[in-house]
Automatic annotation (TrEMBL):
Residues 1-71 are annotated as: Disordered. It comes from Ilex paraguariensis. This is Serine/threonine-protein phosphatase. Its cofactor is Mn(2+). Residues 203-208 form the Serine/threonine specific protein phosphatases domain.
Amino acid sequence: MLSQSESPIVTNNSSIPPTSSDDLAVKDPPPSSDEDFFSSVSSSSSEDKPASITPSPSPPDPSHQPQIPIQWPSDGNINLNWVMDLMSAFEWASKNLPPSDFPSVLPVKVFDSLVLSTSKILHKEPNCVQIDGLGSDCRVVVVGDVHGQLHDVLFLLRDAGFPSENRLFVFNGDYVDRGAWGLETFLLLLAWKVFMPHSVYLLRGNHESKYCTSVYGFEKEVLAKYGDSGKHVYRKCLGCFEGLPLASIIAGHVYTAHGGLFRSIVATPSKRAKGKRNRKIVFNPEVNSLSLGSLEELSKARRSVLDPPWEGVNLIPGDVLWSDPSMNPGLSPNKERGIGLLWGPDCTDKFLKEFNLKLIIRSHEGPDARDKRPGLGGMNEGYTIDHVVESGKLITLFSAPDYPQFQATEERYKNKGAYIVLEPPDFYTPRFHSFEAITPRPKVNPYYDYEDVIDSDEELDLASMVSAS
């Protein structure tokens, strides 16, 4: 774990780490050293890892050096070596280059090609991705919040096994903000998505929004790394966020979403209208009529909004991204966050039963948020089992260990991160894999004023959210 003496250097105003003349010198990337890199962290499982998991695709030879700058393939097709080069280049640059040198690693033109290729895939996917046709040799890895902690993501991918035709990944959102490498983390996952579009599924988190990224650091990170091209890069990232699906259903029985459940939006045909063409739909999403929404309603929600609204007719995206479970029965407004819902065990049971589901995996709450949530478990191991009901379970999964990277208090949470492996034949009996943080992290400065920003996303400045939209 990261000790206090090894904490990153931080200041309130600078987003560029202090560097010496030696630090500023561009150094040749070293040979890949996966074995050394991943030897500083341990992983544990609540159950033994099954021996039947198919091995990952073989990485390049250890003596292979990434070609920096990364170039877009001449035929436009990403292969495994290209993705491995990107991983190695990002990891090396995080330790050897100042943020302003990032374009020397990934030029803007290559960034544009990667984001465009991914956006074309994402925008064709439905709001709720159906992940079916899983054979007896398949496994599904579910990942929670990672928040720009690149080195922990690299470890997770190696520990779980890289994506393959029979090892699928579902990432549950919050790739950016707070951590210092949100851009690298997001782009790396985009690369995996383009390379294996039917084995990697990237869902949206509440931080994949204009409001959150302007408050919690991602916007400033992009501007620091891409300089004059930063605004262009940031806009492209926002456009890509809009295409991220909201939820998934795995093997017909597991529902995953960043925040969780959502309300039904009551729609009533107007009595004045005649004929199908002119029929006016009147929406009535009143608080006093709160009821659980359906998967059909989820499929029709408009997800392509940068900041999901907390009022009006398009409330489902905000609910899916911002809601939290509660130990109190029923549905109620999530007053602590100012957006989304709180739902009780009875709602979990009803949702599972109505849609023939057995398990809900959501994310959205780290150790800081759980500190303020009486009745619910802490996040020391990277996951909690929040509801156990007749129809199944509700799990909160958090994959950013030793979080947050920047913390105003001397005492750290030192939480583990976790990922879940779902296996045949049913795919709804989770295997939990907890892991510690890669240490020490490269020394960097924060991209947001972490001392004044509330770390649990509570008490949102909704007026600022409106102006950011």
